[in-house]
Specification:
311 residues, binds Phenylacetyl coenzyme A, two-stranded antiparallel ribbon, 13 helices, mainly alpha
Length: 311
């Protein structure tokens, strides 16, 4: 009976075991899990654009090979995550349709422009750094396929983060102009990176239920604080200034205090009004349309294989 299934689900969560695709789940769990995984997948795919912008202009063969590999990893993460959403009954075409018609979201961070090659380093350091902070706890998320996907994704994100930091270290030991490029990129990406963790806890409609279901293991503000604490010493080692005059160690709390985040900016970017939203969506839509013949060919090939098997 439904009551028994529900008891089994609650029991699995309470015992900290994983929910698997064969298990019954409440409709709201399925919906929120598909929502989060789809958004995550869309972020990986849209996230290829800002860095992809620099592949043809990378300053050396080595940097170009690294950047190509990173952007390809992101495509892999996206496909991996779409597959995880499919195990919950999410449909790939439907998710893509919802993305390009603006009914499903992707991370706010990818709506900012990449103006110089230093942005590639800063995206690796700050954006991938924030992604790791947010995603390591998701390796213990209650939904098995998502949790397992996160293990591999986090390993690759760690490599991405290191390549970004190494790139910045190299630039910081270069010319005065290179150091200025790095500082400028940090100035532009710091606050948007803090916004990646989502709205503050008292304005985060999904957190309570997602924590109860152990989809999320920490609140948005907890992870944001963890990221700030982790990043300040890295900025010092790098020799850049984080653009926040209120950033200061608070011995009593054992954490860094930081200034007020512009939540109106996050709202605006999420609702489509960020600097690059239109460009990102148009590009994604065009890629989808241009890929129609590939999908048709793949479907025709699958039909032919099936017919051969039936003969
Ligand atoms: N951008 O109630 P909450 C990457 C939405 S990393 C856009 O707090 P929740 C790696 C939220 O969806 C980036 N929308 O929501 C990479 C909700 O809207 P909805 C991807 C945001 O789910 C690096 C509403 O606001 N990572 O891609 C944002 O409990 C470099 C209310 O918020 C993930 O997706 C935002 N920043 O917590 C790739 C991680 N924040 O759906 C390429 C998995 C919130 O009700 C290059 N996701 N919203 O209409 C999560 O951990 C969670 O979904 C949060 C949001 C923490 C993002």
């Amino acid at each position: 009976s439904e009551a028994e299934l529900e008891r089994h689900f609650e029991h699995t969560i309470a015992k900290d075991q994983r929910i698997e695709p064969r298990d019954w789940v409440p409709e709201a769990y399925r919906k929120t899990m598909i929502r989060q995984i789809a958004q995550h997948a869309h972020s990986e795919i849209i996230g290829m654009q800002p860095e992809g912008n620099w592949i043809t202009r990378a300053p050396s063969l080595r940097r170009k090979a690294i950047l190509l590999a990173k952007v390809q990893d992101e495509a892999g993460h996206g496909l991996y995550l779409y597959s995880a959403a499919e195990t919950l009954g999410g449909d790939r075409d439907d998710m893509t349709e919802k993305l390009i018609s603006g009914r499903q979201k992707y991370s706010s961070i990818f709506n900012y422009p990449t103006l110089s090659f230093a942005d590639v380093g800063v995206i690796g350091w700050l954006v991938d750094g924030a992604a790791i902070c947010n995603q390591v706890p998701l390796c213990r998320s209650s939904y098995g396929p998502y949790a397992r996907a996160m293990i591999r994704i986090c390993k690759e994100e760690s490599f991405h983060q290191r390549q970004g930091y190494e790139l910045l270290m190299t630039m910081m030991s270069g010319t005065e102009q290179q150091r200025e490029m790095v500082q400028d990129a940090v100035n532009r990406y710091w606050w948007p990176s803090l916004m990646m963790f989502g709205p503050p806890d008292d304005d985060s409609p999904n957190t309570a239920q997602s924590m109860a279901w152990k989809i999320k293991r920490h609140t948005n503000d907890e992870l944001r604080q963890r990221f700030v604490d982790m990043t300040v010493p890295q900025a010092e080692a790098l020799g850049v200034t984080l653009p926040d005059p209120d950033l200061a160690w608070n011995a009593e709390r054992g954490h860094y205090d930081f200034g007020a985040i512009d939540w109106d900016e996050l709202k605006q970017v999420i609702s489509g009004g960020g600097p690059c939203n239109t460009e990102r969506m148009e590009r994604r839509r065009k890629a989808h349309e241009d890929g129609a013949w590939v999908r048709e060919a793949a479907a025709a090939h699958a039909r032919k294989q099936q017919q051969r098997k039936e003969v």
